[in-house]
Structures are given as C-alpha cells and as structure tokens.
Amino acid sequence: MVQAKTWILTKHFEGFPKNSDFELKLQELPEPKDGEVLLEAVFLSVDPYMRPFSRVRMHEGDVMIGTQVAKVIQSKNPAFPVGSHVVSRCGWRTHAVCDGTDLIPIMPEWPQDVPLSLALGAIGMPGLTAVYGIEEVLGLKEGETLLVNAAAGAVGSLVGQIAKIKGCKVVGSAGTDAKVAFLKELGFDEAFNYKTASSLEDVLKKASPEGYDCFFENVGGASSAVALQQMKNFGRIAVCGSISVYNDTTPQTGPFPHLTMIFKQLKMEGFMQSRWEHKHPETLKRLMAWVKEGKLQCREHVTKGFENMPAAFMGMLQGDNIGKAVVAV
Ligand SMILES: NC(=O)c1ccc[n+]([C@@H]2O[C@H](COP(=O)([O-])OP(=O)(O)OC[C@H]3O[C@@H](n4cnc5c(N)ncnc54)[C@H](OP(=O)(O)O)[C@@H]3O)[C@@H](O)[C@H]2O)c1
Known about the structure:
9 helices; seven-stranded mixed sheet; binds NADP nicotinamide-adenine-dinucleotide phosphate; Rossmann fold; six-stranded parallel sheet; 2 domains; single chain; alpha/beta
C-alpha cells in the first residue's frame, strides 16, 4: 500500500493566496488494477492559471490542479512500462494510480542530456503557448517588432527567443534588474524594468519609436491600455494571460481600449494553447530541436521539496522566478 502526499485547497483563494488556503494530507492508494499504473512525481509545475482556474474548476477540499512529470513505478498497462516517464495532470500529489487515458508519454526520442523538467516548460505547455501565440494568433512576420511582458517568465522568455529566431525585433518588460539582464543575455533587443521605469509610455516609445506590430500580452490591467497606445496601425495583440488581475478581490475598471482599437484598427484575440492540441506532437518536436540547436535557452527556477509547493506557487505569482518555476520532489 502506497501513501500519497497531497496538497488540498482548503479554502478558495481570496486575494493573494495564503499558507492557510492549503493543507498537506496523506491519501492511501489502492494497488493498480489491470490497465492501471502507479506514478511517482519527479517534477511538479506551478503555473499562474492555477489561481483563476481553482475558482472555476475546483471545489474546496480538492487536490490542487496541476501537471507533473512522473515515473511509472508499477504497471499493469503495457503502454507505460515501469521506469518510463509521463506527463500527468493528476495535480499536487507525490503518487497517483491512474489508467493511461490522460497520460502523455515523454517523447521516445527525448535526449539524455535534456532535463525531463523541460516537459513542464520549454518542451511542454509554456513552449506550446509561446509558439501558438506567435504563429497562430499573431502571425508574426520577419522584420516586425514584438512587445512581450512578464518577459523573463516561462512563456515570455520563450516568446522573445522564438521571435528572434523568426528575425524580429523584440522588446520585453520584467520586474527586476536581474530579469532585465537575463533578457539581454537571451538576445532581446530592448528590455526594461517596469517597476522602476518612471513612465511606461516613455520607455515603450524609446524602445521602439516607430511603435509595435505585435504585442504578446501576459499581464493585462492598467499597463495594457498604455501598451495598446504604442501599437502601430493594424497592430495585432495576442491575449495570453492577465496575471496582474488574477489576485484582485474587486475587478479593476478602465481605461477602456475601444477608441484606441478603433483609431489604430487593432486586432486583439484571446487564446488558450489547448485549441491546437492536434498540433502538439509536431510543435514539441520543433521546440526540442530549437533546444538541441542552442536556439532556446531554458532557465528554470527550481524549488526543492514537495512540502514547498504552496511557497513555490506563491513565489511564482509574486515574481520570484526567472524562467519556468518547477518543484523537484
Ligand atoms: N493562454 C494560455 O494558454 C496560457 C498558457 C500558459 C500561460 N498563460 C499565461 O501567461 C502568463 C505567463 O505565464 P507563465 O507560466 O510564463 O508565468 P511566469 O511568467 O513564469 O510567472 C509569472 C510572472 O508574472 C509576473 N507578474 C506577476 N504579477 C505581475 C503584475 N502585477 N504585473 C506584471 N507582471 C506580473 C512576475 O514576473 P515580474 O517579476 O516580471 O513581475 C512572475 O514571475 C500568465 O498570465 C499565464 O496565465 C496562458
């Protein structure tokens, strides 16, 4: 009999999450039946979506939602032999018994020298998000100028690098000087600290006086309205995330973007990466190739210990991470 450690959402978040919203609980797991496997978590992801999705997809008392890279430690399903690794959406838990239906095997040609944790980052959901936002939503073209915010994070750091691969000028914003230095290392043409910039409008104008063709929006809120005013006519905006409002207790209001959108004839589209699930295998192969060719640097912010899941999650929400935030069990 295996005991799983699990992190439960005891109470729906009100404002910024607190330690008391989580509880560590033990759960006895049954032996795997025919067709089932027993998984042991190796790396767990902490992602911004967990904050808004917890409200709509979870009840108090549920195990926190989330994705992990897990090792198969017992198997009664020949598709998932003992010792193989999978990506599983079984939440914040050290062990799980599941049938294979929702498991994604790690691609068989995964190279030895590429960490498996990247299956939660550059060669996983954040990488897919960056590619689809750029290619399917923005239709970014060589020579164009792209703005991305939360640029030193999991998605943003990949967006900037992929835009450089495509021959674009890239401007990124992030919340510390160390993050700005990281963006320069990655090859961003311009990068600035939005927390210390005296005027967002001025810094955006200085970084690209001629304006922006594309905006990969991760942050939302008030800064968004300022950025929209710096778009070129017929600019395109991919609304990927809105992290600046996820912890609000009362919704933010205005300024409203409609007149700017009309005068500049902007096109704005929200998206979720899951829309292109049918393309995931091919896209993951392309991401892996860029990693192997050294075209994508994949920085990770690793927190050690399953016990530290809530701290890692809250740390990511407040900007502790450079690159992808993951927990190593
Ligand atoms: N649509 C989709 O399918 C999809 C998929 C994945 C992610 N997303 C979204 O993409 C965005 C980035 O996700 P990620 O996984 O790459 O997270 P991440 O950027 O690695 O981590 C979150 C970052 O957000 C920044 N942040 C937090 N509060 C902020 C605020 N008030 N204003 C500006 N920046 C703030 C922090 O960096 P700073 O130090 O720079 O503030 C923090 O490091 C999120 O909005 C997420 O919801 C969407």
